Amino acid sequence: MPEEGKITVFLVDDHEVVRRGVHELLSVEDDIEVVGEAGTAGDALVRIPATRPDVAVLDVRLPDGSGVEVCREVRSLNEDIKCLMLTSFADDEALFDAIMAGASGYVLKAIRGNELLTAVRDVAAGKSLLDPVATARVLERLRSGNAGGNGGADGDNRLANLTEQERKILDLIGEGLTNRVIGERLHLAEKTIKNYVSSLLSKLGMERRSQAAAYVARKQAEERR
Predict the structure, then answer these.
(1) pLDDT band at 133 (very low <50, low <70, confident <90, very high)
(2) The predicted structure's pLDDT at residue 224
(3) Which residues contact 96 (CB under 8 A, 6 or more apart)?
(4) What is the mean pLDDT of the chain?
(5) How far apart are CA 66 and CA 177, in angstroms?
(6) pTM value?
(7) For residues 133 and 90, what is the distance between their CA atoms, to the nearest angstrom?
(8) Which of 8, 24, 114, 145 could be cross-linked to 205 through a Cys-Cys bond (beta carbons 3.0 to 4.6 Å apart)?
(9) CB under 8 Å to 155, separation ≥6 — which residues?
(10) Measured CA distances, 189 to 69, 100, 154, 175, 180 (Å)
(11) CA–CA gap between residue 91 and residue 52 (Å, rounded)
(12) Backbone phi and psi for residue 206, each to the nearest 5 degrees, phi listed first
């Protein structure tokens, strides 16, 4: 069991050297304890809910999925777990997905050691580390997207913004399935599916799933021509 008052941290990165380096950096601090590690999304989704860390440090790109998807699933099960995304690339698309998944922070792997320690402590304290300029861009995209909603070439561009998992869920919405049934089909919690649906509707500039279902039907009709 973690010692009283310590910030408990779970590390997820598919590179063992990176995990070991971050582990050593965190472990020497008196107020931080690493309670677990994982190298895949699948392993993380089993072990993070079991260890219930204060902060999960998640690599965005994993061999069997995305750290963003891990964040979304973990927080749908336990909102007390804060997620700090760690990535090699500054990518607006990944930042957008991280915000929609409920991440508290998004930092580059080029971050200095003392800055990462500060980031972990700030996220554990409930602060947001999302860059305000980048976040403003994402929120502007959401607003302009919701103001749109037309199809055509714009619709194709918006479809390209969806993650692979979101595309799967969009197709299942097109089949008329409920969140519960989609969850059963994809082995995910119903609340997680609800979060995915909110995210994909925002990206598509839509407010209701009925619009998404109509969009899928229209795309399928275009493909059959």
Answers:
(1) low
(2) 63
(3) 138, 141, 161, 203
(4) 84
(5) 24
(6) 0.64
(7) 13
(8) 145
(9) 204, 215, 219
(10) 12, 17, 31, 19, 8
(11) 28
(12) -120, 160
d(CA 183, CA 60): 23
Amino acid at 13: D
CA distances from 108 to 32, 37, 45 (A): 20, 19, 23
Q: Which two tokens stand for residue 15?
A: 């590179």
Three-state DSSP class for residue 32: strand
Q: How do residues 40-61 score in pLDDT, each as one tens digit?
A: 999 999 999 999 999 999 999 8
Coil, strand, or helix at residue 59?
strand
CA distance 23 to 92: 28
Contact residues for 82 (Cβ-Cβ < 8 A; gap 6+): 54, 55, 56, 104, 105, 123, 124, 126
Alpha helix positions (H), the chain: 16-27, 41-51, 67-77, 92-101, 113-124, 132-147, 152-160, 164-174, 179-186, 190-204, 209-224
